Amino acid sequence: MYSEKVMEHFRNPRNQGKMENPDGTGVAGNPLCGDVMKFYIKVRNGTIVEAKWETFGCAAAIATSSALSEMVKGKTLEEALEIKREDVSSFLGGLPPIKEHCSNLAVDALRKAIKNYRERVKE
Amino acid sequence: MNPEKLREDFPILVNGLNGKPVIYFDNACVTLKPRQVIEAMNEYYENFPACHGRSSHKLGLKVTEEYEKSRKTVAEFIRAKKPAEIVFVRNTTEAINLVANSLELKKGDVVVTTDKEHNSNLVPWLFLEKRRGIKRRIVPWPEDGNLDDFTEAVKGATLVSIVHTSNLDGTSLPVKEIVKISHDAGALVLVDGAQSVPHKETDVRKLDVDFLAFSGHKMLGPSGIGCLYGRYELLERMEPFLVGGDTVDDTTYSSCRLSKPPEKFEAGLQNYAGAIGLAAAVKYLKRVGLERVEKHEKTLNRIITESLLQHEQISVIGPEDPDKRGGIFSFTIKGIHPHDISAFLDEENIFIRSGAHCVHSWFNSRGIEGSARASFYLYNTKEEAEKFIEAVEKIMKIFG
After folding, report:
1. Boundaries of domain holding A113
2. pLDDT at A105 over 90
3. If interface means Cβ-Cβ distance under 8 Å, which residues of chain B face chain A?
4. Which of B40, B214, B272, B366 is deepest in the core (most CB within 10 A)?
5. Which of B147, B114, B191, B161 is nearest to B359 (CA)?
6. What pLDDT does B220 receive?
7. What is the pLDDT of residues B155-185, one digit of tens each?
């Protein structure tokens, strides 16, 4: 059902856990399956230097969170905002159609974290 | 009972899907429909697709005859005193909403439920709490059969609204005893029979319930049809909450005369094909015999329970004894999300349900994220149960 890469990220999730003093935090949820994902970022000079996440969910939700946290590292906020859900699933070698919404969740949470960062910078 | 023979009546079990057989274990949600039900409904649409009770031509009269015959079939199925005690609605949720809106509960009136109600028997009361100021009491499920909490909670209550069999874990309440306790305290009793009526003999007079709600789609019938049984004297006293087409015998520009039950509750053109299909489903169930269905489900549940509970990572929701859980095996596997279990089984054409099963309140209060639920019916086989066990064990290997 899942690609090797999905299972690998599920078994060894990267950057999992809460971040102390994040610069931006985003939460996304899927009411259908009840998954909730929290994404934290640290930003220096417009670049994401660290990303962490907390997810209660299926293997796809965990793998997409893990993958995205690797994908955004070193990216500028603009570049990070351009990441689409398809990019996350193809990074993982594809997701079963029924699980595509999980990758949506990770990208949504990241975008919210960036928005949250920008709002805090303005203040 | 011969499930192999019965299976011939269910097109998807005969045809399979994408070249593979289908194992349908999501019966607590929706059951499959035998061709007898589909044919009965087609007969309405093909031969007399008209309106009941009004048009006096041959087609209209035929609809009236078939619709009322269906009502009678359903009434006899649950041993109602008379067909007029059966109100056709869309589903259990609508039936409960009908009672919630028509009982004219006032500020301070108390409604008692359990802590394991489907949203259909929680949300209507939450709304009445907000809108009319009713009070709610939630009784913990009497796992050990002790009804002291009920006896205490029903004191001064207006209505006791309880599920008969939980869709979460398959356990059943001793409804007859709870009805007695409630009536002694002067409260009416509404029973959500969505998971019980399809699986065991139900006798509203023996149970002495005031209302019974159930759905057609969980008992081989079509979707969009369900029933509210109500004691006639109560239905007579209650005001309808949907009014307009039908529901009245006569109107002037300034007044209307309400019809008698059940017509006064059946507003607008009804789901005639649905009612006819439901009656066909009832006949099918009667022919097979619900006692046998119940026994068969427990047999399958026992095979699965005894095998899977040997793995210490697997826990069942509810009691371990399958006889106490009827046709439901609701489970979790440590370290594997319920949605991954169902998604993996889906690949094998084994269809189960995962998540909170519309009992979010129960899961939220316990901080559990959900369960995977396999639920059985008369067309499921021991061979399917074995395949399910193999598939679940395979998942544990893949994710382990």
Report:
1. 4-122
2. no
3. 336-337, 339-340, 343-344, 346-347, 355-356, 360, 369-370, 398-399
4. B214
5. B114
6. 98
7. 999 999 999 999 999 999 999 999 999 999 9
Tens of pLDDT, residues B248-276: 999 999 999 999 999 999 999 999 999 99
* CA distances (Å), origin A59, targets A63, B48, B340: 6, 52, 7
Report the residue of chain A nearest B348, measured CA to CA. A1
Give the domain CATH number at A65: 3.90.1010.10
Which has the higher per-residue pLDDT, A35 or B125?
Answer: B125
pLDDT tens digits for range A47-63? 999 999 998 788 999 99
Please tell me which of the candidates A7, A34, A98 has its beta carbon nearest to residue B355: A34
Chain A, chain B: beta-carbon pairs less than 8 Å apart: 32
Is the Cβ–Cβ distance between A4 and A74 less than 8 Å? Answer: no
Chain B partners of A7 at a C-beta cutoff of 8 Å? Answer: 398-399
Number of domains in chain A: 1
B355 sits in the region (left: phi over 0; alpha: psi -120 to 50; else beta) called: left
Angle at B133 between CA B193 and CA B153, to 5 degrees: 55
B37-287 belongs to which CATH class? alpha beta
Q: Which residues of B143-170 are buried (b: 16+ CB within 10 A; e: fewer)?
A: eeeebebbbebbeebbbbbbbbbbbbbb
Q: E strand or H helix at A8, and its extent?
A: helix A4-11
**Given this model, what pLDDT does residue B253 score?**
97
- Give the span between the Cα atoms of B284 and B378, in whole angstroms: 11
A7, A33, A36, A81: the active-site residue: A33
Q: What CATH number labels B3-32+289-399?
A: 3.90.1150.10
- CATH 3.90.1150.10 in chain B: give the residue spans: 3-32+289-399
Give start-end residues of each CATH 3.40.640.10 domain in chain B. 37-287
Q: What is the pLDDT of residue A101?
A: 76
Its ipTM equals 0.79
Average the pLDDT over B34-45 and give the result.
98
* pLDDT for the residue numbered A34: 64
For residue range B270-294, what is the model confidence (pLDDT) as tens digits?
999 999 999 999 999 999 999 999 9
Instruction: Tell me which residue has tokens 């067309």.
Output: B379
The average confidence (pLDDT) of chain B is 96
